[in-house]
Amino acid sequence: MKFISFLLLLTPFVVCAQDNDTGVKFRYKGFIDSYHAVRSSGDWDYMSSRTRARFESGLEKGNTSGFVSLNAVYNPIVSRQSGLFLREAYMEHSNKGWGVKVGRQIVTWGIADGVQVTDIISPMDYSEFLAQDYDDIRIPVNAIRVSYSNMYLKAEGIFVPTPEFYVMPTECENPWSISLNGMYCQLHNNIPERKIANSEYGGRVSAYLNNIDFSLCALRTWNKMPAFRLNGVTSEKMLDIDAYYDPMTMVGADLSTSLGKFVLRAEVAEYFNTLVSTRNFATAPVHKNQTSALVGLDWYPGNDWTIMLQYNHVYTADYSNDLSDYEHTGMATMNVSKALLRNTLKLGAFGRFDCANDGAFFIRFNADYHLTDEIAIILGYDWFNAESGMFAYYKDNSELWFKAKYSF
C-alpha cells in the first residue's frame, strides 16, 4: 500500500513533469461495472450481486515503469468480498533485451483457453465457481521475473516467495459454497507457512519460428487446488474438512501453428507427486503422478465469426479405485462468438463438457451490446447440468444475469 500511496502522491508532479518535457509519462484507465444474477428455478433468489470500480494507473520513464490496479467492491451477499483490494502493483525495467518485473502480478503460461495445463502459477478464485469472466477469477502472485528476449526467443525465470492458492467458497450465505449432501463445510485451510523453503521457482523458454511457436517450462510449485480429508461433523452440523497442500514439480511444453484460417494448439504437462483426495474423503490424500494433455483448434472463418474447440485429458498413474479422480478424465471446451451491427453487438457461448461424467456440462451464453465506446450492456445465462462430477455441486445454480459497464 505504500507503493500505491507513493504513486498517488506523485500524480500531480508527474502531470507537471509531462508539461515540462521531462520524459515521465502518467496514464490511467478503469471501469465501473454492476453485475446481478438470479437463479432460473425455484424461488429465483439472488446468486450474485456486486458493484465494482477498477482503477489502473502507471508511470513510465525511459525503460522503467510502474503499474497499480485496484478494485473497490460492494457485495451485499458475501460481506468479505466488499472493500478495497489491491489487484496488481509492480515495477518493470528493460534494457537491451533483458527485463525484470517485481511485485504483485498475474502470471500466464501456456496457450490453453480457459484451462490450466502449464498455466498454474496464478491460481483461481472459485467464490462463484466459473460464473465470472475468466480474467476476473485469476489471482495475482508476488513474484520476481527475470527475462531475456529477442526476435526469435524469450527465456524467463520466476521466483514466487509467497505462493497463492485457490480460493474455495465456504460462507453459508454464498450460494456457491461447497456442500455435500446438503451440509456446508467448515474448512481448515492448511496453507503452507510464508518462508523461503515454501517458495515457487521455475523457468520457461519460448521460441518464435516461421509459422510455429513453442515453449518448454519447468516449475517447482504446490498443488494449488487443495486435496481434502473429512474429519467428521461439527456441533453446528457442518462437515469438518482439512485442506492439504504439498510440494510438487511440473514440467511442460506447448505449441501453436497457423494453418490458413485455423490455428492448431497443443499443450502437455507432467505433474510429479501431486496430492489427490480419496473417494470417501475420510482418509488422507495420496501422492500421484498425473499427465495433462490438451489439443485445440481455432477457426476464423470470416464475417466476424470465431470458433475455438479444445480437449484436455488427464491421466493418473499408479491408479487405485479409492481415489476421488478417475484414472482417465476428459474436459472438452467450446468458445463461439459472432460480432454483429458493425461490432456493436457480440453474441457468444463458452461451454465446458465433462467427458468423464456423461451429460455433465456448464455453458455460459452472453449478448454484449455497446451503446457507445464507453458504455456496454451484457445479458447472459449460465446453464449447469450434471448428476456427478464437479458440475454436480452446482446443478441447481443455473442463472440469468445482467451486467452494465462504463469504461474510462
Q: What would you note in describing this structure?
A:
- The protein is mainly beta and 408 residues long.
- It is 4% helix and 58% strand.
- It has a domain at 341-408: Pantoate--beta-alanine Ligase, Chain: A,domain 2, CATH 3.30.1300.
- It contains 1 helix and 22 strands.
- The longest helix has 18 residues, at 2-19.
Q: Secondary-structure blueprint of this entry?
A:
Layout: H1 2-19, E1 24-39, E2 46-61, E3 64-74, E4 83-95, E5 98-105, E6 141-149, E7 153-162, E8 179-180, E9 183-189, E10 200-209, E11 212-222, E12 227-233, E13 239-244, E14 247-259, E15 262-276, E16 286-302, E17 305-316, E18 328-340, E19 345-354, E20 360-370, E21 375-385, E22 399-407
Parallel strand pairs: 9-13
Antiparallel strand pairs: 1-2, 1-22, 2-3, 3-4, 4-5, 5-6, 6-7, 7-10, 8-9, 10-11, 11-14, 12-13, 14-15, 15-16, 16-17, 17-18, 18-19, 19-20, 20-21, 21-22
Task: Sum up the structure in keywords.
408 residues, mainly beta, 18-stranded antiparallel β-barrel, four-stranded mixed beta sheet, 22 strands, 58% strand
Describe what is shown at a glance:
The chain has 408 residues and is mainly β. The protein is built from one helix and 22 strands. The protein has a domain of 68 residues: Pantoate--beta-alanine Ligase, Chain: A,domain 2.
